[in-house]
Amino acid sequence: MRARVELVLAVVAAVGSVLSWLAAGSTVVVAPVVNGEPNTPSVVYSPALLVLSLFLAAVAGVLAVVAIARLRRGHRAPK
Fold it and tell me: Is 22:10 a contact under the CB 8 Å cutoff?
């Protein structure tokens, strides 16, 4: 039972990581370097959301490994 809860939490953390990554970027318009050139769109990333995304990805990975190890250990035949 505990392994399944850990797997569910790993999936939730992975989804949170993806959502945080997607929310981290925002488009801004950059002024031209030379007069007469058009404005250029650029993407600016929020450092806090990127750190949150990486943290959640790490937590998801650890929880998945622990849950899979716990499930494999539970399926072994007793000696």
Answer: no
